[in-house]
Specification:
This protein has 278 residues and is of the alpha/beta class. The protein has 9 helices and 9 strands. Strands 5-4-6-3-7-8-9 form a 7-stranded parallel sheet, with helices on both faces. Strands 1-2 form a two-stranded antiparallel ribbon. A hairpin with a 5-residue loop joins β1 and β2. The longest helix is centred in the C-terminal third of the chain and has 16 residues. The two termini are 24 Å apart.
């Protein structure tokens, strides 16, 4: 794999996935268009985003994909840095966890509405770490929720291996794995690939600089070939993303000169997810 290959892959299918319809107010927040927000009705589907190392762009990828694919953002992260608090849900202001209750009762949780401004959400909770069901139960539950809701689920997982992560990956039609081109990050990716060889994996080169080292590109390609994983479109490295404070996804916000490249790259990733295995 070369830098030119990454650029070519990034450009493919960049506009194939339309975002949900929304307007925007003067503060840049999306607003409902045409009245009350109505969730889309979709064929059952589970897309999981996973990684064996934190800080690789997993939660950002899940949030943007949930928006672009019109899916329910389902948060299995139990640390405060996950998508739930960034969405605007604060567990300390609630009496119960919809996620934990759903697993305990066997009922399908009702997603919180993003009202056409951000993805609908099944929120995570800090107590989920010690209340995780077995992986088989997680997988069966996700598939049932998707059928009952008639919605696609986009699942963000906790970094590393856990019952909930393995269950989410088992249920998924495809698991998206952000692959940062760094030595430690690639070693973590290698561990994931070696431990989970039979899962449908789409590797997304993430935080790719303008001129990544050739040996890192070659190493990613080697890992993909040896473990029969597919490499998808690349996403660049943007200094401003960690500084962003808006709750809506970048792809749901007004496109600016600064955000346009990232938005196009994420649309290409969403297109690759749609096409995977089909």
């Amino acid at each position: 794999m070369t830098s030119e290959t990454l650029k070519d892959v990034t450009a493919e299918g960049a506009t194939a996935i339309p975002a949900q319809h929304e307007g925007h107010d003067e503060e840049g927040e999306a607003t409902d268009v045409g009245g009350t927000y109505v969730p889309p009705e979709q064929d059952p589907d589970v897309v999981t985003v996973a990684g064996f190392k934190g800080g690789v762009g997993k939660s950002r990828t899940a949030k943007e994909l949930a928006w672009l694919l019109g899916g329910v953002l389902t948060d299995f992260e139990w640390d405060w840095g996950g998508v739930t608090r960034g969405w605007g849900y604060f567990e300390e202001a609630r009496l119960k966890s919809p996620l934990i209750r759903a697993f305990q009762t066997g009922e399908t949780p009702k997603p919180l509405s993003g009202r056409g401004r951000k993805p609908d959400l099944i929120p995570g909770h800090t107590d989920f770490e010690r209340n995780q069901p077995r992986s088989e139960v997680v997988a069966e539950s996700l598939l049932q929720w998707s059928r009952d809701l008639k919605r696609r689920l986009v699942v963000d997982t906790h970094p590393g291996g856990s019952e909930s992560t393995y269950g989410a990956m088992a249920a998924a039609r495809v698991t998206v794995v952000p692959a940062v081109l760094g030595n430690e990050e690639l070693r973590a990716l290698e561990g994931l690939l070696k431990n989970l060889p039979d899962y449908p994996l789409l590797l997304i080169p993430y935080k790719v600089g303008r001129s990544p080292a050739a040996w890192l590109l070659d190493e990613l390609e080697r890992l993909a070939e040896e473990n029969k994983a597919e490499i998808g479109p690349a996403v660049g490295d943007y200094y401003w993303i960690p500084q962003r404070r808006l709750r809506v996804p970048i792809c749901a916000s007004p496109v600016s000169k600064r955000t346009a490249p990232f938005v196009e790259e994420m649309k290409a990733v969403a297109e690759a997810v749609e096409k995977y295995g089909r």
